[in-house]
Fold this protein.
Amino acid sequence: MKYIIDTSVWSVAFRKSPKNNEETALIELARNIIREMKVVMIGPIRQELLSGISDKSKFEQLLQRMSVFTDRIIQTEEYELAAEYSNECRKNGIQGSHIDFLICAVATTNDAVIVTLDKDFEKYPKYIPIKLYRK
């Protein structure tokens, strides 16, 4: 099994302390996924994670930690699938970010499970075929 760890989980793992048991459990899961080399990393998640760090030394530290992950190149078909997912959800009254739907498309084409703390993702499986990690 492969996993896409969403920015919300990386952010808690690298920049903040967990606020509750759900966050603690997902951070431990992420550590296990990383140890087992089952992470699917994509550039948009890397960009989101690195964005907004004004302290240059903290930015460099995080950049170094993330350098062990090779980005999976996103294919044209996955961008198109992301647009289809966005359209399908929007048609049904569900809004989401372009990056969310790109994550969904890459997860679908890689048969990967999405690990996230972002509650928006809980709305998507009703309309698009994604797998979310559930405890």
Summary: The mean pLDDT is 94. Strands lie at 2-5, 112-115, 131-132. The longest strand covers residues 2-5.
